[in-house]
Design goal:
The complex is a heterodimer of chains A (307) and B (324). Chain A has 307 residues and is mostly helical. Chain A contains eleven helices and two strands, in the order ααααββααααααα. Chain A has a domain of 207 residues. Chain A has a two-stranded antiparallel ribbon with strand order 1-2. Classes of the chains: A mainly alpha (307), B mainly alpha (324). Chains A and B meet through α4, α9 and α11 of A and α5, α10 and α12 of B.
Chain lengths: 307, 324
């Protein structure tokens, strides 16, 4: 194991974490403000990736695709909110789970209908192709660094939006007392639609950025969605700060676990077995971490005040 | 007491028996297999109904127990075939009765462990944590190559039941049917027991239950473990039905489907899971015959049920549930 390799894995972990944050931020906002658990968030991620891939291949520009992914995911989010989600706010979590589970089926089959069963491919834009030399001599893809930077930028933007703007003030007010801000004359229904579309756009952005690293296919959102759940459970549901730290923690622990566990085990057992056991153990690592954190703090690391 | 709901239940139970018998008599063994699927899915959902319907515990991870039951059957059968010991010199077996016991035990203990941590939380946290634990089992099954990993595990010959030829579809259906009826009877027994009353009371008002000196946590934990064991039993039967186990039994879609069965049928009702499973399998069969995009329409139907027909099928047939 060299230092360069470890650094590379650490960056991969950060990149995964940043991507998870984009998903988790939307989920946790939607839960915090509307009290809604949205399983279909992974579908919006998929919508973003497909929109980006389709538009990029039609226009030849990744950047137009990226804008399209934001627009499509936000629009899909807004439509779904108006048609379905709106009716679920005063239902119990069971109904929400079921209705959004139904949405997943509809989104997945609908996408398969439109685009066929074969995956689409999305190229990394020319501007971000190539690699950067890391200290220690290894080469690291520029695109992955760009994802980390974009994620950090979005996190900062969200911080400004929620902490410093009027919309953010309303969102925070909605989190702490829904009825009160309605009584004060804020159009709460529109606010909900805006928050949902914002969360959807973040998910779509994540999908589009990751779409250039892996194939764009139906069902791609589901593993990410479940990781995002782990993130917000660890971070504390409703807390953006918790989502950020939880996402980085999960991203880094998952990636480093897959990298380090087999090597550590190799010190004790034969290498072939170490790879086997280490791989299986690493795939469970974040869930074990979640269990430990919950055993100590059942409401996550940064519990939101009201939930 | 012959209420409308009891009458509907009776009709459902008789239908599930008569339809495959008639199908068998008229030389349509395929429908027997379909009915077996209904019985097994209903059994799995009845297990979940103990936790979800009576206890109000929305577990989104029951696929873990379903799959564990399935793998228990698959692993024991494989070792019985190869003659190698499973663990600590214990041999495998192809006897269903032993397999069922092991499946329930392993699923129940797993349920106990998962419940120990998950039940410390409630609401959305509980939903997500049960989901996450089920994913943990799923990824373990995928990355552990000894029993097929991602490809799954085939059971070459269906396991044995004393005095019955299990390879005959009708005999295997009858076994599953009897197990389902026994499970439903057990559900009634629990629902009407002191334990069941406490469990339902904890769903309705946790604080009051705690005030009269009953610890809701322990009641729920026991209920969760029993629920897991019953779903595990269904998993073992499902593995024998398909003579195949794969990680897809553990996937979160399976967990979602089990909840769907309960809601389609009617939440918290004795025959809700059976009604839901029958409806689901019929949908799957009819829509699947019409279009390969049947999941799209299943999604629409499901959405319609949640938004507009909250009582499910039994709510339509037998009126509102008597207790909330």
């Amino acid at each position: 194991m060299t230092l360069a390799l470890a650094l590379e894995q650490l960056l991969n972990g950060l990149q995964l974490g940043v991507m998870l944050f984009l998903m988790a931020a939307g989920l946790t906002l939607i839960f915090g403000v509307m009290g809604l658990i949205n399983l279909a968030h992974g579908s919006l991620y998929m919508v973003g990736a497909f929109a980006c891939a389709a538009v990029a291949s039609a226009t030849g520009s990744f950047w137009i695709g990226l804008v399209a992914s934001l627009a499509c995911a936000a629009a899909a989010g807004a439509i779904v909110e108006l048609l379905v989600i709106r009716r679920l706010y005063d239902r119990d979590h069971l109904d929400q789970v079921l209705a959004t589970f139904a949405l997943i089926l509809i989104f997945s089959e609908g996408t398969r209908w439109l685009f066929g069963s074969f995956p689409l491919y999305l190229d990394i834009p020319p501007l971000l192709q190539g690699a950067v030399a890391l200290p220690g001599g290894a080469q690291y893809p520029l695109y992955r660094l760009a994802i980390i930077a974009a994620g950090a930028l979005v996190a900062f933007g969200l911080y400004l939006l929620i902490g410093k703007t009027r919309l953010g003030m309303r969102i925070r007010a909605g989190e702490s007392d829904r009825e009160m801000i309605g009584a004060l004359g804020v159009d709460i229904r529109t606010l909900y639609t805006v928050v949902f579309a914002l969360g959807a756009a973040l998910a779509g952005l994540a999908g589009a950025m990751v779409g250039a690293l892996q194939s764009v296919q139906v069902g791609m959102g589901e593993p990410v969605l479940i990781l995002a759940f782990v993130v917000i459970v660890i971070g504390g549901i409703g807390s953006i700060k918790g989502a950020l730290l939880g996402a980085l923690l999960v991203g880094v622990v998952d990636t480093m676990g897959r990298f380090l566990l087999p090597q550590m085990l190799a010190l004790f057992v034969p290498p072939s077995q170490a790879g086997l056991i280490g791989g299986a153990a690493a795939s469970m690592l974040i869930y074990v971490m979640m269990a430990i954190i919950l055993a100590v703090k059942p409401r996550g690391l940064f519990p939101a005040a009201h939930a | 007491m012959l209420t409308r709901e009891n009458l509907v239940n009776l009709v459902l139970a008789v239908l599930l028996l008569v339809v495959p018998l008639a199908a068998y008599a008229s030389g349509q063994p395929f429908y027997v297999t379909l009915a077996t699927r209904v019985a097994i899915l209903a059994l799995a959902a009845t297990g979940l109904n103990l936790a979800l319907g009576l206890g109000g515990l929305v577990s989104f991870g029951h696929a873990a127990f379903f799959g564990i039951g399935g793998y228990a059957a698959g692993i024991l059968a494989t070792h019985s075939f190869s003659g190698e010991p499973v663990l600590l010199g214990l041999p495998g077996t192809n006897q269903m009765l032993v397999i069922w016991l092991v499946a329930m035990l392993v699923a129940g203990i797993t349920g106990l462990l998962i419940g120990l941590i998950s039940l410390r939380t409630s609401g959305v946290y509980f939903i997500m944590i049960t989901l996450a634990f089920a994913q943990m089992v799923y990824y373990f099954a995928i990355s552990w190559p000894a029993y097929g990993g991602e490809d799954g595990l085939s059971i070459l010959v269906r396991n044995q039941f004393p005095g019955v030829n299990t390879m005959k579809p009708l005999s295997f259906f009858l076994i599953c049917y009897v197990v389902l009826i026994a499970a439903l009877a057990f559900f009634v027994l629990i629902r009407n027991s002191r334990f069941g009353s406490a469990l339902q009371a904890a769903r309705q008002n946790e604080v009051r239950v705690a005030t009269v000196g009953i610890a809701p946590y322990r009641i729920r934990l026991v209920a969760f473990a029993i629920s897991a064991a019953m779903t595990g039993l269904a998993g073992a039967l499902f593995a024998d039905l398909n003579r195949f186990v794969s990680p897809s039994m553990l996937s979160w879609h399976m967990s979602g489907e089990l909840i769907v069965l309960i809601i389609l049928g009617g939440t918290g009702r004795l025959f809700g899971p059976l009604a839901g499973a029958a409806l689901f399998v019929v949908f799957e069969y009819l829509l699947g015959g019409l279009t390969e995009r049947w999941q799209f329409f299943l999604g629409l139907i499901l959405l319609g049920t949640v938004l507009f027909a909250r009582g499910g099928l039994l709510g339509l047939l037998a009126g509102k549930a008597r207790h909330g």
